[in-house]
Amino acid sequence: DAGVTQSPTHLIKTRGQQVTLRCSPISGHKSVSWYQQVLGQGPQFIFQYYEKEERGRGNFPDRFSARQFPNYSSELNVNALLLGDSALYLCASSLRESNQPQHFGDGTRLSIL
Amino acid sequence: DQQVKQNSPSLSVQEGRISILNCDYTNSMFDYFLWYKKYPAEGPTFLISISSIKDKNEDGRFTVFLNKSAKHLSLHIVPSQPGDSAVYFCATHNNAGNMLTFGGGTRLMVKP
């Protein structure tokens, strides 16, 4: 069975640009969450989507946005990129909305020059 | 302020011995805790969890202990194997159960 898949695996952008990251959850999983992991720290929660609705938002600026599609895949968009946005972006899926172990993809490594 | 803390950034253990990874939390309302393992270039992998109604949960070589009065949990790996070398994160759900808060991680090195 396929796990959570994310694309692309690596991305290099310059300051001020915009980026879109993609995530396909495990088949049958309806919840998708996004996390940002900066080097040397634990992942930080950005968004959760369940049944195509935003169900949770972490402490990130409005430059960060996301959506979930009818097939439960998801995109994370970041506008006006800053150097500090350089990080590993992780997508996680779970079967239901809450109180479930989340299963992570291998992430997208975003580097801002 | 960090709600979940792993105070040891690294731990080195001999193969076959016990590895003990520690985690402290600040909010007594947290009621579900998880441990994840992360290899380089891979996403975190769920290992084991514990609900606050228990003080111990065991799965093979992995045991998690929860001390609610001390707001402390620990992960025991016995016996440790070189393949266990990875970064270990403890995490907890928020009250809505949909957001994980992670500690900073502990890098475990198991030497052959």
What would you note in describing this structure?
Chain A has 113 residues and is mostly beta strands. Chain A has strands spanning 5-7, 10-13, 19-24, 31-37, 44-50, 53-57, 64-68, 74-78, 87-94, 103-104, 108-112. Chain A has a single domain (5-112), classed as Immunoglobulin-like (Sandwich), CATH 2.60.40.10. Chain A has no helices and 11 strands. In chain A, strands 2, 4, 5, 6, 9, 10 and 11 form a 7-stranded mixed β-sheet that branches. Chain B has one domain (4-111): Immunoglobulins (Immunoglobulin-like, Sandwich), CATH 2.60.40. In chain B, the strands form 2 sheets. In chain B, strands 2, 4, 5, 9, 10 and 11 form a 6-stranded mixed β-sheet that branches. A 5-stranded antiparallel β-sheet of chain B has the order 1-3-8-7-6, with no helix packed on it. Helices cover 0% and strands 54% of the residues of chain B. In chain B, strand 7 (62-67) and strand 8 (72-77) form a beta hairpin. Chain B has 112 residues and is mainly β.
Greatest interface and its participating residue counts: A-B, 28 and 25 residues
Query: Helical stretch count of chain A?
Result: 0
Query: Could you give the order of the helices and strands of chain A?
Result: EEEEEEEEEEE
CATH topology of chain A: Immunoglobulin-like
**What characteristic shape of chain B results from the CA principal axes?**
globular
CATH class of chain B: Mainly Beta
Task: Give the number of helices of chain B.
Answer: 0
Low-confidence segments of chain A, given as residue ranges, are none
Biggest β-sheet description of chain A: 7 strands, mixed
Evaluate the radius of gyration of chain A. 13 Å
Q: How much helix is in the residues of chain B?
A: under 10%
Q: Quote the distance from N terminus to C terminus of chain B.
A: 38 Å
Largest beta-sheet details of chain B: 6 strands, mixed
Within CATH, the superfamily of chain A carries the name: Immunoglobulins
Unreliable spans of chain B are none
Strand tally of chain B is 11
The geometry of chain A reads as globular
| CATH class categorisation of chain A | Mainly Beta
Q: Kindly name the structural category of chain B.
A: mainly beta
Task: Report the CATH architecture of chain A.
Answer: Sandwich
What is the SS-derived class of chain A?
mainly beta
